[in-house]
């Protein structure tokens, strides 16, 4: 906070406190010329009148005590601009202390799982229950509460894994994240006709209905541009995250328009790394739950 803003806040605080004290003093006593307490000329229903009596002293005393408390509070805690207070308290320091305490409790709770293999944890119902809760907090926003994914977010409950479905592969995805990139190929293909032919061939790889002549022409384009990642047979490459194009699963859709969008604009899939957020033990537990979804291991109780 700049010194100008600091002084601005200080002046406002002082004026508010001084104004409260002045208001209490001004309203707490009678002045010459004031009507009698029982004589205000404000009558209702013939026998109800508004009195003009000062506030009781005990009530005024409570207000003064409140002002004194406010002054003490502003001396001890920050509140007067850049003044840190005699306690040097900060919300950031309190947050860090609370977080450190919570981290210690979490570390103790998950310590038994820190060194166990993912496949072993996938057979532990208690570990799976913890993993499911972690997944709900950190992963469900993209993959859904049931891990079935959505358009652009992989289904984790089937047996199709773009980056490999072995326990260590799943753990690596959770810990280090994944970055997939499908480059735009419109310029390389050169024409709308060649794009349509490539779309037809790609759809034919998974048995979708296509024009056979277009698919045959698209095979040459695929061989020249796509086999480096997807392989000569279109079966993909888990080391690069390149999906198998011969199965029935399509991350962004199998209709011609969706595939055209992929070819023309490319795709960029980003799975963020969770190692720093979860730590190795919790990452291992959630990886076990994800692994269990497609490998039929124990279910959480």
Task: Characterize the structure shown.
The chain has 301 residues and is mainly alpha-helical. The chain has two domains: 3-89, no CATH class; 116-295, Cytochrome c-like domain (Cytochrome Bc1 Complex, Chain D, domain 2, Orthogonal Bundle), CATH 1.10.760. The chain is 54% helix and 5% strand. The protein has 13 helices and four strands. The protein has helices at 3-27, 57-76, 91-110, 118-121, 125-138, 140-143, 167-176, 186-189, 192-205, 212-225, 227-230, 256-265, 275-295, and strands at 43-44, 48-49, 178-182, 267-271. The strands form two sheets. The protein has a two-stranded antiparallel sheet with strand order 1-2. It has a two-stranded antiparallel ribbon with strand order 3-4. Helix 5 crosses helix 13. The longest helix has 25 residues, at 3-27. The chain is elongated, with a radius of gyration of 35 Å. The model has no long low-confidence stretch (mean pLDDT 91). Its cofactor is heme c. C-type cytochrome. Part of the cbb3-type cytochrome c oxidase complex. The chain crosses the membrane at residues 6-24, 58-77.
What about the largest sheet? Answer: 2 strands, antiparallel
Low-confidence stretches: none
Mean pLDDT score, rounded?
91
Topology order in helix (H) and strand (E) letters = HEEHHHHHHEHHHHHEH
For the record, what is the CATH homologous superfamily label of the largest domain?
A: Cytochrome c-like domain
The CATH architecture of the largest domain would be Orthogonal Bundle
Please compute the radius of gyration using only Cα atoms: 35 Å
> Which CATH class of the largest domain applies here?
Mainly Alpha
Taken as a percent bin, the fraction of beta residues is: under 5%
The counted number of beta strands is 4
CATH fold-level label of the largest domain? Cytochrome Bc1 Complex, Chain D, domain 2
* Count of structural domains: 2
Question: What's the total helix number?
Answer: 13
Subcellular location: Cell inner membrane
Organism: Tahibacter harae
Keywords: Cell inner membrane, Cell membrane, Electron transport, Heme, Hydrogen ion transport, Ion transport, Iron, Membrane, Metal-binding, Oxidoreductase, Repeat, Respiratory chain, Transmembrane, Transmembrane helix, Transport
Function: C-type cytochrome. Part of the cbb3-type cytochrome c oxidase complex.
């Amino acid at each position: 906070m700049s010194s100008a803003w600091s002084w601005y806040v200080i002046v406002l605080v002082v004026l508010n406190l001084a104004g409260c004290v002045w208001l209490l003093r001004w309203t707490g006593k009678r002045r010459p010329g004031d009507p009698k307490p029982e004589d205000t000329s404000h009558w209702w229903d013939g026998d109800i009148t508004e009195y003009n009596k000062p506030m009781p002293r005990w009530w005024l005393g409570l207000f003064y005590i409140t002002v004194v408390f406010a002054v003490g509070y502003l001396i001890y805690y920050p509140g007067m601009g850049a003044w840190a207070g005699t306690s040097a308290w900060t919300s950031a320091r309190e947050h860090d202390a609370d977080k450190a305490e919570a981290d210690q409790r979490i570390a103790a709770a998950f310590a038994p799982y820190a060194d166990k293999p993912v496949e072993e944890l996938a057979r532990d119902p208690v570990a799976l229950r913890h993993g499911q809760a972690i997944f709900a907090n950190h992963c469900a926003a993209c993959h859904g509460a049931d891990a079935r994914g959505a358009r652009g977010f992989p289904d984790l409950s089937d047996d199709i894994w773009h980056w490999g479905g072995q326990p260590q592969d799943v753990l690596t995805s959770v810990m280090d994240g994944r970055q997939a990139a499908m480059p735009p190929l419109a310029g390389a293909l050169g024409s709308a006709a060649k794009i349509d032919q490539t779309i037809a061939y790609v759809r034919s790889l998974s048995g979708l209905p296509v024009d056979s002549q277009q698919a045959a022409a698209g095979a040459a384009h695929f061989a020249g541009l796509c086999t480096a990642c997807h392989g000569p047979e279109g079966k993909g490459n888990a080391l690069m995250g390149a999906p198998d194009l011969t199965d029935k699963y399509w991350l962004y859709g199998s209709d011609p328009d969706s595939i055209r969008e992929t070819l023309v604009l490319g795709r960029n899939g980003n799975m963020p790394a969770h190692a720093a957020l979860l730590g190795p033990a919790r990452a291992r537990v959630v990886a076990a739950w994800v692994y269990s979804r497609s490998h039929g291991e124990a279910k959480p109780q």
